[in-house]
Structure formats: C-alpha cells, structure tokens
Amino acid sequence: MKNIAATALLLSAGGLFGSASAHVVLEYQVAPAGASYKASFKVGHGCGASPTRQVAVDIPAGMRGARPMPKPGWTLEVQREKLAQPYTSHGRSITEDVVRITWTAKTPDDMLQSAHYDEFVLVAQAPEQAGTVYWPVRQACAEGKNDWTDVPKAGQRLSDLKSPAAALEILPTGGGGAHNH
User: Fold this and answer.
1) Global pTM?
2) Are 11 and 29 in contact (CB under 8 A)?
3) Which of 44, 142, 168, 174 is the most exposed place for a label (fewest CB within 10 A)?
4) All residues at 6 or more sequence positions from 91 whose CB lies less than 8 Å from its CB, including other chains
5) Burial class (CB in 10 A: 0-12, 13-18, 19+), 62
6) How far apart are CA 78 and CA 82, in angstroms?
C-alpha cells in the first residue's frame, strides 16, 4: 500500500511539474526531505537556432552541499557564499555553501547545438522541510539567452509562466531512512 501511495504521489507531481518540456526542467521532480538528491537539468534546445554556450544554476535556499558533475568540453565555476545560519555536516561546522554552479563550453565546438539534448548534473542534500523549491537556471547561447527564473505566485501554476524555474517537490519523510550529512 505504501508503494502504491508513493507511486501515485510521484505521478501526480510529475503532472504538476512535467508540462514545461520546452524549458530547462529537472529529470526527477520529487525528493524526500533531508535526503541526497541528484539534480539532472534537461536542456532540450538553444536560443532559437543558436547553440548553448553556458548553463548557470542557482542553488535554492535549504539545499546543502551542492557538488557539480564535470562535463567533458565544459569548464566549471562553483560560487560560494557565507551562510547566515551555519550547519553541521560530518561533525564539522559549515559556514559557507554553494549558491551557483556554472558550466561553460570551452570552445564553439563544445557548445550544445540547438538540435541536440544534454543534461547538466549536480548532487545536493534536500531541505528537511517539505514543500517546493525552485532552481533558477540561466541559459546563455552564442546569440541570445533564456532565463528560466520565473517562480509562481500564490494561486499561479508553473505551467502559467513563460520562463519557469525548474521545480522540485520536497516530500515529507515517513520516519527514519533519510541519510543526513
């Protein structure tokens, strides 16, 4: 019964967040609170016919310890900032954390052509609180850009937005089982 309920919840969340296939979206749009989460940002097009040369992802408040996956032909920039509220991970006090990860194509040949698809991946620990977090993504192309940064206001749906941020629904945990750092 627990598996049926979890499957139903995953399918309904996919219906809520999966309609923006032309935009930069997350492959998996739900995660348990406090668990490690692999964020795969699906990029399905450039800016018109122009290839993608850079993808920058802002890490939502509450997501901790973000670490990007390197991509051949792309450089990585990891921006950190001091935390207003430090936290403890593996017995150490963490006073700064990642706030943005940027992948940039090294050469024009490395750019993601508009007719192709690719993923940009990072891992992070989900917040302890259930709810929706939004990941603003900025896509820069050889010519032009797409800022997928719109967040719905109260009563507005993600599908109502022209340039929606990628959305992740954090599900409450049902007791133990989350691997906390």
Assistant:
1) 0.83
2) no
3) 174
4) none
5) middle
6) 14
